[in-house]
Structure formats: C-alpha cells, structure tokens
Amino acid sequence: MEDQSAFGVGSVDGYGKQAQQGQNLGEENPTDGSNTKDPFYTMPGVLHFLQTEWSKFEMERSQWEVERAELQARIAFLQGERKGQENLKHDLVRRIKMLEFALRQERAKFHRLKFGSEPPGGAAIAAATAGDATDGDSGASPAVSQLLDPEELLRETSTQTAATKAKAKDGRQLIRQYLQV
User: Fold this and answer.
1) Are 122 and 108 in contact (CB under 8 A)?
2) CB within 8 A of 146, min separation 6: which ones?
3) What is the tens place of the pLDDT at every residue in 54-113?
4) Are the CB atoms for 16 and 42 separated by under 8 Å?
5) Domain limits of the chain?
6) Burial (0-12, 13-18, 19+ Cβ within 10 Å), 169
7) Using CA of residue 66, residue 68, residue 73, residue 74, what is the dihedral sign?
8) pTM for this structure?
9) Contact, 141 vs 116, CB < 8 A?
C-alpha cells in the first residue's frame, strides 16, 4: 500500500498527492503535533496533472477551431446564396421594367393606329414612345390610305418597312440603355 517514490516516502495517488506514513488525511501528525490537512505534491504528479490539463485544453481548442471553420464555411455558403438571390431579383426587376416599357409602347402604337391620335393622358406615354412618333404615318386612318393609287401605296409601304426597321433598331438601343441603368 505504500509506494517508494524518488521524492518522498508514502502512498502516491494519480496526481502526486502523497500521504505521510501513518497519516490519513485529516489526522494530526503524531510526531510534530501540527494539523496537516493539505497534502504536499510530488514533481511527477504535478507534471502529470499539467500534461493532462494541457491535452484537455488542446483538444477543446482544436474542437473549437473545427467548429469555427465549419461555421465560417456555412456563413460563406449562405452569403453566396444571398448574393445569388439578390442578382436574380435584380435581373427579374430589370426584365419587368423592360416588359412594362414595351407594353406601354405597344399600347400607344395600337391607340395611334386605331384612333389616329395620341392616347389620352399620353404625355408620359408619348415621351416613352418618342421614337414611334416619326414612323412616316401622317395621322390618316386606314380607310383613307386605301384611296391612294397603287404606286403611292407601294411607296408608302416601303417607307413604312424602312421606318419599322429603324424603329426596331432604335427600340433595341433604347432597351439597352434602359437596362444599363
């Protein structure tokens, strides 16, 4: 039950706490008469304790670093996902604006062709469709254009085709400018 160690005589527990011979913890020492409740520590016991505590600390630190790396990876993934959603939203808003713009132009064009005049409250629509105002149409209704002779009708049709191509080109340029903003 008693172990001989290099640093003292007596029993040694796992952390170097050593009880004196003939002494239990809490008993008075019969030789000197003092009350020694605190055992003294041995050097191997202290080193063993420090090594175990250090290894526990290192293990906890490495676990914390692994958890930190996992959380940083998750944060990066979620930020990328959020950025992708923002880009998608931005693209969809741009498409909606482009389609609304094209719809306003088509409505104004249809109103001009049907009624031969600008739509009511068309100041905003007319500003948006300024390129359509120069389409070569003099504001005459379709019934009047049928009264023209065939040569005049052919000439008007070819001018309208060229104007339509020019309007389409202008419209594409306007949409590009609109999408760049």
Assistant:
1) yes
2) 153
3) 999 999 999 999 999 999 999 999 999 999 999 999 999 999 999 999 999 999 998 888
4) yes
5) 84-180
6) exposed
7) positive
8) 0.40
9) yes
